[in-house]
Amino acid sequence: MHVMFYTKPGCLLCEETELMMQLLQEDYSLTWTNVNIEEDDTIHEKFMFNIPVIEKDGEVLLSGNFSVDDLVSVLKSNV
Asked: Domain 2-77, what fold?
């Protein structure tokens, strides 16, 4: 599954989320594209209070502070 990962530099939650995704990527064939929200005003306005955001096909799957269990649940339901 390929997702968009909205983040920004210096975001600790974003760094933790990316580590979780790296740990799970083999088990769930997970790939992602990093999108720095600070590089696009529209995206920044949309997600500035919600990062990190994991989105697939235009649908936000997870945002903000979530656990590895939340991520696993989303990955299982989108396989």
From this structure: Glutaredoxin (3.40.30)
